[in-house]
């Protein structure tokens, strides 16, 4: 049986590793790391609801305006919101989807439709999860040695 910390760590690592992809530019990965580092302070200062709403808004972009293979400015914000939402609406979390609810369910619905006790639990859980996200983003979303501008060949 895993501890809650182990479950958080596993979830954070799986989600961060989804971004460790050659098709995602290093600039986008760096933005993700920066926004991941900023999110816990924003949650602490403004609360989970305000921080989540900010990240959701910054991550909202009209997909029809983006060319295939390009990344919009809100990509990193959107991925962090999705990560947080995905964790906090799981079955053993404060904002799990109610059994009688039909339709989609996400973090913002959980925040606006639950009580203050659940809000406090979710806020503490978000902070604990983000500790892992920050660590894994710093560890895995680094520029690989072969991805720099200049590559060294055997002839040089």
From TrEMBL:
Q: Which InterPro entries match?
A: AF1862-like_dom_sf, CRISPR-assoc_prot_Cmr5
Instruction: Alphabetically list the UniProt keywords.
Output: Antiviral defense, Cytoplasm
Q: Which GO terms describe its biological process?
A: defense response to virus
Q: Which Pfam families match?
A: Cas_Cmr5 (PF09701)
Give its localization.
Cytoplasm
Record's GO cellular component terms: cytoplasm
Q: Which NCBIfam families match?
A: cas_Cmr5 (TIGR01881)
The entry's family comment says: Belongs to the CRISPR system Cmr5 family.
UniProt protein name: CRISPR type III-B/RAMP module-associated protein Cmr5
Protein source organism: uncultured Thiotrichaceae bacterium
């Amino acid at each position: 049986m895993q501890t809650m910390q182990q479950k958080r760590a596993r979830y954070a690592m799986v989600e961060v590793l989804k971004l460790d992809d050659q098709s995602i530019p290093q600039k986008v990965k760096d933005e993700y790391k920066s926004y991941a580092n900023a999110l816990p302070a924003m949650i602490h200062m403004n609360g989970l609801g305000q921080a989540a709403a900010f990240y959701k808004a910054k991550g909202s972009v009209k997909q029809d305006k983006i060319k295939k293979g390009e990344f919009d400015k809100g990509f990193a914000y959107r991925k962090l919101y999705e990560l947080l939402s995905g964790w906090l609406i799981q079955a053993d979390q404060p904002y799990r989807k109610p059994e009688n609810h039909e339709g989609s369910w996400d973090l913002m619905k959980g925040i606006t439709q639950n009580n203050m006790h659940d809000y406090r639990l979710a806020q503490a859980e978000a902070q604990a999860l983000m500790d892992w996200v920050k660590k894994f983003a710093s560890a895995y979303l680094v520029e690989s040695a072969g991805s720099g501008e200049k590559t060294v060949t055997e002839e040089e």
